[in-house]
Design brief:
Elements (H helix, E strand, L loop, with lengths): L2 H6 L10 E3 L2 E3 L6 E5 L7 H14 L3 E5 L3 H16 L6 E5 L3 H7 L1 H6 L2 E4 L8 H16 L4 E6 L5 H13 L6 H23 L6 E6 L3 H14 L3 E4 L5 E2 H17 L5 E2 L3 E2 L8 H12 L8 E4 L10 H23 L7 E5 L5 H7 L2 E4 L8 E6 L2 E7 L3 H16 L2
Parallel strand pairs: 3-4, 3-11, 4-5, 5-6, 6-7, 7-8, 8-9, 9-11, 10-12, 13-14, 14-15
Antiparallel strand pairs: 1-2, 15-16, 16-17
Helix pairs in contact: 2-3, 4-6, 6-8, 7-8, 8-9, 9-10
C-alpha cells in the first residue's frame, strides 16, 4: 500500500460490545462519545451542578464526578435532581477509589443516581481485601443495573502483579524490556479485573476498559495490545497530559493514532487547566479532534488562512475569530433550531492567492483584500460568487450573510 492509498482508505472500527451508559450508547457501531470530568468538590452541590451543566452544554456526553467521601456520596442524588430540574440529562459517572465499596453500601441513593461506576483495580483495595472489595462494587453494579469502567492507571498500578511479571521476565533471561513488562502489566490488570467481574455476574455489555499512561508511545502500545486481546468497549485518554498546547498536542497525537486504527469508543482529553481556566476546553479539544479526523461533526467548520506578508491587515483574523466565537456561542440554540447546521463550512480568507478558490469550496466564504489589493471582498455561496463587499462594514455585512444563509438552508 503506497502512502496515497493509506490516507485515502479509512481504517475500519474495531468491533466492540455496546454498553448503555444512562441512555448514551458506547461501543458497538455507535459514534465515539466525548466525556469529561469535573474538578469541583462534589460535596459542593451548587458548584458541581454549575460545572456539570457547563460541560454538558459544551458538548460533553458523559460527565465523571469524584465520589471520595461521605459528603460527596450524600451530595450525588441532590446533584442529579438539580440537573434534571434544569433539563440537563447528561449521565453522571461516579469515580471511586479506596472506599467505593463502603460508599455504595452506605449511600444507596448515590448508587442509584449514578449512570456508571469507575473503579481502579490498582487501588480498589490492597492484598487480601482487593478482590473482596472489588467484588462488592461489582455486586452493587449488578444490583442497580449499572455499567462499570475498569480504569487501570500506571500511576497506581497493581504492584503485586507488576512484581510477579518482572520476576517471571527475569527468570526467562529478560526477553522483554522494563517498558514492555509495564505495558503487559497494565493490559493484564484490566483483563484480569474484567474477567473477574464477569465471573461475579456482570455482563460484557456492562464493562468498559481503560488503560491510561502519560506518554504517547506507551499509550499507543498498551491500547493496541488491549484491543487485540478483547472486545470490551474502550475508553481512551492520555493521563496527566499536561497544560496548554503540550497537553493538547500530546493527547491529540496519541488518541489520533488509535482512533485512526479504529480503536476507542469514548474519549477524554485530560488537560490541566490554568488557574481560573475554563474546564470546557477539554470538551472542545475532544470534539475538534473527532471532527478534523472526520469521525463526527459537532459544529460548523471555519477555514481561515494562516496569514503571511500579503495579509498585514488583521481584518481577516478578527473576522474569523468573531465568526468562530459566535458559532460556539450559538450552537446550543442552533442545534435545536437548525438541524444539520453542524455540517456548515465557512471560509474567511486573507488575500487573492488562495482566497477565491478556498471560498468556492465552502458553503459560504469571503476573500478579503490583502496588502495592496483592491479594497473589495468577493463573497461565494455554494461555489458561486454572489456579491462583492466594499467599505468599512465588510465584516458586519458578511456576518449577516452567514446568519441569513443558516436561516435559509437549515430552517
Amino acid at each position: 500500500m503506497n502512502k496515497h492509498e493509506y490516507f485515502s482508505k479509512p481504517f475500519p472500527r474495531r468491533k466492540s460490545v455496546a454498553v448503555n451508559v444512562g441512555g448514551v450508547m458506547v461501543g458497538g457501531n455507535n459514534p465515539v462519545v466525548v466525556q469529561s470530568m469535573t474538578n469541583t468538590d462534589t460535596a459542593d452541590v451548587d458548584a458541581t451542578v454549575a460545572q456539570v451543566a457547563a460541560l454538558a452544554k459544551a458538548g460533553s456526553e458523559l460527565v465523571r464526578i469524584t465520589v471520595d467521601r461521605d459528603e460527596s456520596a450524600a451530595a450525588v442524588p441532590r446533584i442529579r435532581e438539580r440537573l434534571d430540574n434544569l433539563g440537563i440529562t447528561v449521565p453522571l459517572i461516579g469515580d471511586f477509589h479506596y472506599i467505593g465499596h463502603k460508599l455504595l453500601a452506605e449511600y444507596p441513593d448515590c448508587a442509584k443516581a449514578l449512570a456508571k461506576y469507575r473503579i481502579n483495580p490498582g487501588n480498589v483495595g490492597f492484598r487480601e481485601k482487593r478482590d473482596k472489595q472489588f467484588s462488592e462494587i461489582i455486586e452493587f453494579a449488578i444490583r442497580y443495573d449499572k455499567p462499570v469502567r475498569i480504569g487501570v492507571n500506571w500511576g497506581s498500578l497493581d504492584q503485586e502483579l507488576l512484581t510477579r511479571l518482572m520476576d517471571e521476565n527475569a527468570e526467562k533471561g529478560g526477553p522483554l524490556s522494563t517498558d514492555e513488562v509495564m505495558h503487559e502489566t497494565v493490559v493484564q490488570s484490566a483483563l484480569i479485573s474484567a474477567h473477574l467481574a464477569e465471573e461475579i455476574g456482570l455482563g460484557r455489555d456492562k464493562i468498559i476498559l481503560s488503560a491510561k499512561v502519560s506518554q504517547v508511545q506507551d499509550l499507543v502500545a498498551v491500547y493496541t495490545m488491549l484491543a487485540e486481546r478483547c472486545d470490551y468497549a474502550l475508553h481512551l485518554g492520555l493521563t496527566e497530559a499536561g497544560m496548554g498546547t503540550k497537553g493538547v498536542v500530546a493527547s491529540s497525537a496519541a488518541l489520533g493514532i488509535l482512533l485512526e486504527q479504529g480503536i476507542g469508543d469514548t474519549i477524554r482529553i485530560s488537560l490541566t487547566p490554568e488557574p481560573g481556566g475554563d474546564r470546557r476546553r477539554e470538551v472542545q479539544v475532544a470534539q475538534e479532534l473527532l471532527q478534523v479526523m472526520g469521525f463526527r461533526q459537532f459544529i460548523p467548520t471555519v477555514a481561515a488562512c494562516p496569514g503571511c506578508g500579503r495579509t498585514t491587515s488583521t481584518v481577516f483574523q478578527e473576522l474569523a475569530q468573531k465568526i468562530q466565537g459566535d458559532i460556539r456561542k450559538n450552537m446550543p440554540v442552533w442545534r435545536e433550531k437548525y438541524p444539520g447546521v453542524e455540517t456548515l463550512n465557512v471560509a474567511v480568507m486573507g488575500c487573492i492567492v488562495n482566497g477565491p478558490g478556498e471560498s468556492k469550496h465552502a458553503n459560504i466564504g469571503i476573500s478579503l483584500p490583502g496588502t495592496g489589493e483592491m479594497p473589495a471582498a468577493p463573497v461565494f455561496i455554494d461555489g458561486k460568487k454572489v456579491k462583492t463587499l466594499r467599505g468599512a462594514n465588510i465584516a458586519a455585512e458578511f456576518e449577516q450573510m452567514v446568519a441569513d444563509y443558516i436561516e435559509e438552508r437549515f430552517k
